[in-house]
Design brief:
- The structure is a single chain.
- With about 375 residues, the protein is an alpha+beta fold.
- Helices cover about 30% and strands about 15% of the residues.
- The protein is built from 13 helices and twelve strands.
- The protein has helices spanning about 1-15, 40-50, 95-110, 125, 140, 155-160, 170-175, 195-210, 210-220, 260-265, 280-290, 295-300, 375-385, and strands at about 55-65, 65-75, 80, 90, 245-250, 255, 275, 315, 320-325, 330-340, 340-345, 355-360.
- The strands form three sheets. Strands 3-2-1-12-11-10-9-8 form an eight-stranded antiparallel β-sheet.
- It is globular, with a radius of gyration of 20 Å.
Length: about 375
């Protein structure tokens, strides 16, 4: 891990100073949340994280007393644009939960069979020489029990990914980095968190529907009123108010890698590939844990935890959904960290309590500042809501 971080830090530091930056300006007429009983504690927490090194931090919570949202730091350090609660953020691997939810909605309509092999949808050329590809099912993709390897764990791929001189590549080319790999285990017989699986899931859903993005909009985003959420594709314009992305290069210094982040977003369909706002993400957290979007049966399916993923503390992984036990209370959601973003989205199934956080600092490979953004962060925020 240390060696990999050194190599990539060098690539980022050398290549990013002249990259174009997104338009981070945005009109934001956010209401006051000062009346929430936890407002003072939450405000202090957000301010503290920025004071300790995060470039920007946005946080939203819902409790029975109502909603609180707050932001601190900068969406654009170079331009002096302060982070607001209206800014648009990449959600990194939290995007897996959006895609898994869509898969469950397609299953409810009879368009996708969770226990069918992905080879029933994806052609031989796509699956050629991928580990276990002929027998892996959709369920095994979604709960990380496929035994497939992860392109994001290949050092050669990471060097390729951080090459700022190239254009985005089609998502299926990501699969080339794992073709010919030996399976990690037999399908259904283990757990290994793998971005490869969710790229395949997205490609399969695109084949099933003919338009993954349009189906996501019609079946998931519009019903929840998520007007500021998008799945970026090559050539799409930046949404208004997208934050700049930064990478930690050592010694407390950070580098602007907004173009790399944008390139990464459009490639990792399924595995990430969602941009959204606090308000939209909070609505999604509520819906996944408690809301009417999914049937009770589908929600139960999402919470079938892969036995091999469950640890001594009771944390586990289901269908695009993680379980965290915090002081004896179950939360469901997902965390994410990629080249220029960190995010989390969690909610309690048993109570009207949810939390969403976003930062514009890369969490992909760690670093001292990433210690401000880990599982302990979830524990701390949950404690502030009591």
């Amino acid at each position: 891990m240390i060696g990999r971080l050194w190599v990539l830090s060098g690539l980022v530091a050398v290549g990013c100073s002249d990259f174009p930056k997104p338009d981070s300006t945005i009109d934001c007429d956010a209401p006051s949340y000062a009346e929430h009983p936890a407002a003072e504690r939450l405000r202090a927490f957000v301010d503290d994280r920025v004071a300790r090194g995060l470039p920007g931090f946005a946080l939203a919570v819902r409790t029975p007393e109502g909603v609180w949202q707050g932001a601190a730091g900068y969406a654009d350090i170079e331009g002096g644009v302060e982070m607001s609660t209206c800014h648009v953020h990449p959600m990194a691997s939290v995007g897996k939960t959006w895609h898994a939810t869509l898969a469950l909605l397609l299953a409810e309509r009879g368009l996708l069979d969770l226990d069918a092999p992905i080879s029933s949808v994806l052609d031989e050329d796509t699956l050629h020489r991928l580990p276990n590809a002929e027998v892996v099912t959709f369920r095994q993709l979604m709960d990380h029990s496929s035994g497939m390897t992860d392109f994001n764990e290949d050092l050669a791929y990471l060097g390729f990914e951080f090459d700022g001189s190239r254009d985005p590549r089609p998502p299926d080319e990501l699969l080339d980095w794992v073709r010919g790999d030996a399976p990690l285990f037999e399908p259904g017989q283990g757990y290994h968190y793998t971005d490869t699986e969710y790229v395949l899931l997205a490609m399969a859903m695109d084949a099933i529907t003919g338009d993954l993005v349009g189906t996501m909009r019609a079946d998931l985003l519009d019903p929840l009123g998520m007007a500021h959420t998008s799945l970026p594709r090559v050539g799409d314009p930046d949404p208004e108010g997208r934050v700049n992305a930064y990478w930690e290069i050592g010694g407390g210094r950070i580098s602007n890698i907004s173009a790399l982040q944008a390139k990464y977003d459009v490639q990792v369909i399924g595995a990430g590939n969602v941009r959204t706002t606090l308000t939209d993400a909070l609505a999604f957290a509520d819906a996944v844990a408690r809301g009417p979007l999914l049937s009770d049966e589908s929600r139960d399916e999402m919470q079938q935890w892969n036995p091999s993923s469950v640890d001594a503390e009771g944390h586990g992984y289901g269908l695009g959904l993680a379980r965290r036990q915090i002081d004896g209370v179950t939360w469901v959601g997902h965390t994410g960290g990629d080249v220029g973003a960190g995010a989390f989205l969690f909610a309690r199934p048993d109570a009207e309590v949810s939390m969403v956080g976003m930062t514009n600092l890369g969490m992909f490979l760690g670093g001292p500042l990433s210690e401000l953004w880990n599982d302990e962060t979830l524990v701390e925020i949950a404690g502030l809501l009591d």
